[in-house]
Amino acid sequence: MSTKGRAKKLLERRYTLASGLPPFQQIVRGSLVTRYRRCGKPTCHCVNTEGHGPAHYLVVTLKPGKTEQIFLSEEMLPVVRRYLENYSRWWGALEKVSEVNRRLLRMRVAGLAEEAPASKSGRPT
């Protein structure tokens, strides 16, 4: 296959990777943490169970030694799970698109690297 043909396939792959992403506005970085706690009263039921809870938090490391914890209600859990999954999908796509772009740069096709694959109508496919 020619360089131009390989480049075209890479451009199509890059476009496909980028076009299947969830909305950028619906991402969040962090971890979903569920905690149970013991109150310390010797006669409380939490002594013999996993404790009081569950309490759900979105935990984000902002910088070394600094974290942010956001307490979440039960109805927010599906939203947070979706946002975390979306973040993971964006991050994975970023890595894959970066790999494609490195391959295009190795092929020395910088002019082609900016083009989106076009269908016969002239629109990106």
Describe the structure.
With 125 residues, this protein is α+β, with helices and mostly antiparallel strands. It has one domain. It contains three helices and three strands. The protein has a three-stranded antiparallel beta sheet, covered by helices on one side. The protein is elongated.
The order of strands across the largest sheet is 1-2-3
Distance between the termini: 22 Å
Task: Return the domain count.
Answer: 1
| Strand fraction | 15-25%
- Rounded to an integer in angstroms, the radius of gyration calculated over CA atoms is 23 Å
Tell me the total number of β-strands.
3
The number of helical elements comes to 3
Mean pLDDT: 87
- Give, in order, the helices and strands: HEEEHH
Shape: elongated
- In helices, the fraction of residues equals 40-55%
